[in-house]
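#lab-general

N.A. 3:47 PM
ok so I finally got the sequence cleaned up, no stray characters, all 255 residues accounted for. can someone with queue access submit it? mine expired

B.Y. 3:52 PM
send it over

N.A. 3:53 PM
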Amino acid sequence: MNFVKPKKRLGQHFLTDQNIAFKIVESLGSDVSDVLEIGPGTGMLTQYLLKRPEINLHVIEIDRDSVAYLNENFQELKHIWLEDFLKADIAGKFNGDFSIIGNFPYNISSQIFFKVLEMRNRVPEVVGMIQKEVAERIAGKHGKKTYGILSVLLQTFYDIEYLFTVHEHVFDPPPKVKSAVIRFRRNSRTELPCDEKFFIKVVKTAFNQRRKMMRNSLKTVCENLPARFAEKRPEQLSVEDFIELCSAIEELKKM
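B.Y. 4:20 PM
back already:
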């Protein structure tokens, strides 16, 4: 492990606490046999994932040093891909559904989750460690300051659980922020009653001017919003409210 040094450019902070690693792995359900670990690094989670016989483990890692270490120290690991998760054809690597787990690089965690959304009908569960602030935003409920774009888009298709907080001292090097482990489980929503691209546009436009009332922030989208939404600010709208709002705007545009 000594020759695998955390690389700042890759946002690497290697977890050093065995108990936390075990707890993260045990947070992953057993409904799907294929599991993808993103960014295994030196295998802190990998070692415990390999001890679960029901799991067919695949790992994807962008760091050549880490891949060399994994090949040398985890010979039972049959699927190691030296690739960038964000650029790889992940869904094409699996025949069926697959779950995702990892200590995700904090600088790209949001991008990882947007890609998960694209694959949501193949990914029933995600367990990941991310920056605490981002985890709070993702799990945030409407009416709270933490509630935002990621909250709405991810909660549209996943049930989100904030599992536990992880402190800085259990990493090498220690990050400047606290971390948290979060879990997504796919909900029963198969599709939206409105256009999905339009839904995403409305959510992003509203929260990009979150201090404004909806009638002002969405002027470029619709000049006359339905009355029940017009005087509200975006954090006051639930996921269901945003869906209803987008469907109502689409109906207005047909008139």
